[in-house]
Amino acid sequence: MENHENEPSGRKSRGRPRDWNDKTAQNTIKSLDRAMAVFEYLSETQGEPLSVIASETDQSPATVYRILVTLEGRGLVEFDAGEQIWRIGARAFVIGARFLRQTSLVERARPILRRLMEATGETANLGAEKNGAVLFLSQVETHASIRAFFPPGTLSPMHSSGIGKVLLAQMDEERLSRFFSREELTAFTEHSITEEAALRQNLERIRARGFSFDNEEKNIGMRCIAAPVFDANEEAIAGVSVSGPTSRITLEDVERLSVAVTSAARDLTKAIGGTA
Fold first, then answer.
1. What is the per-residue pLDDT across 129-164, written as a single tens digit (0 to 9) for each?
2. Transcription regulation: is it a keyword of this entry (predicted)?
3. Closest by CA position to 193, among listed 232, 224, 155, 158
């Protein structure tokens, strides 16, 4: 995504007017805003009658009816004459599917990872599960001299990785049982979790608090905090993390850093059209 905030004054922005950053009422289309309120409301329901839609969107039935008829002409909403209700239309799915086809997880993650690195001062990572391991997809390195380094393509065991554990914590029992039946919980350091019962207990804490903590479980002297990223089906498809040396990520820093990490994961979830 291009950043035009610091463009030279003589350069014209393509695709948007000079008053782009002016979000005052004079630059909004009220009728369109009202229509979008109706459209968004219907997208969250299984179908409602006109009177309910008008009440829930705080608009008059006459206004809402005109909006619905207009949206119906575009295929964005449909009217069920039998039940006398309006619902979201098939065209809305087509448009949404186009967005998803254009959405790249890695591409959407880059600016979010950069902001996370700048906010925490630590290396920010993006990873996903691949055949029982964590596959690192992207990384924005810290400027500090001592740093974690997981170049794209690096594989890491899930049980000793912040991202790996946060993804395990989101698995249902069937998938989790398959993981334990296939994977060996290897001890990499004295802090590695090598017993299934202990790891399951750790995963329960991760689910409860919304982030994971790798406390020197893969490499002595390195810690990692991770949070899950969800797709449109509410499934955890990736994890965002920050990692760095214990000298900078102390135990007292975990709560503070977890706020930044979980916020970045939510931002990425939203950016790809996901739902947590």
1. 988 999 999 999 998 877 777 778 888 999 999 999
2. yes
3. 158
